[in-house]
Amino acid sequence: GAPTISIFLKPPGLIAPGGSTTICCSCQCDSGNFVLYKDGHQLRTLEPRGSRAEFSISNATGEDTGAYSCHYLEGGTVLARSETLDVRVQELRLPKPVLSVLPGPEVAAGTYVMFRCTIAHSSAGCFLYLEGQVQAFNLPPKEHDFNLSHVHKSNEGRYSCQCFTRNVSFQWSAVSRTLDLVVR
């Protein structure tokens, strides 16, 4: 079968103007190149280091906002395309939330785990990010809790959260400090 590519932001979340992030493309591929596209236009080509290529965005501006994807090419032939990653650059006006995990950052497989994203704003909604995943988990307003009932090795990783308000326009917080979940 054709190889599959994953695309994700490191660190995940919205980027403040002047901030930086890295678009990571990874693939269990052989000896080709990654090509980064933005809004359907080819931007850059990179040879992978190991199974991944990293495209850096520094001193971000509104121009960096867009829909990014990676193509994997061998000998000029596109073998695989990633899903689309939306990158947004916007002023971060809310206070930085605090992410915590109960019962703690190291748990046994099968344990019940709760992530809590705390922000000093009553009507904020929040997203929980797992590094390496495109999709964020949408946390319900007010509680900002995300429950995993039977954790397993695939839930391991580096988590962070980011909050927003939906009044006249969206306002965003910075991304919380990261928290590493280890499943034994």
Automatic annotation (TrEMBL):
Q: Which PROSITE patterns match?
A: IG_LIKE
Task: Enumerate the InterPro entries for this protein.
Answer: Ig-like_dom, Ig-like_dom_sf, Ig-like_fold, Ig-like_Receptors_ImmuneReg, Ig_sub, Immunoglobulin_dom
Q: Report if keyword Lipid metabolism is assigned.
A: no
Q: What are the record keywords, sorted?
A: Disulfide bond, Glycoprotein, Immunoglobulin domain, Repeat, Signal
Task: Show the SUPFAM superfamilies listed in the entry.
Answer: Immunoglobulin (SSF48726)
Q: Any signal peptide, and if so, which residues?
A: none
Query: Which Gene Ontology terms describe the biological processes this protein takes part in?
Result: cell surface receptor signaling pathway; immune response-regulating signaling pathway
Q: Is Signal tagged as a keyword?
A: yes
Instruction: Tell me the Pfam families matching this sequence.
Output: ig (PF00047)
**Which residue numbers delimit the Ig-like domain?**
3-86
Top-level division of the source organism's lineage: Eukaryota
Q: What is this protein called?
A: IGSF1 protein
Organism ancestry: Eukaryota, Metazoa, Chordata, Craniata, Vertebrata
Encoding gene (name): Igsf1
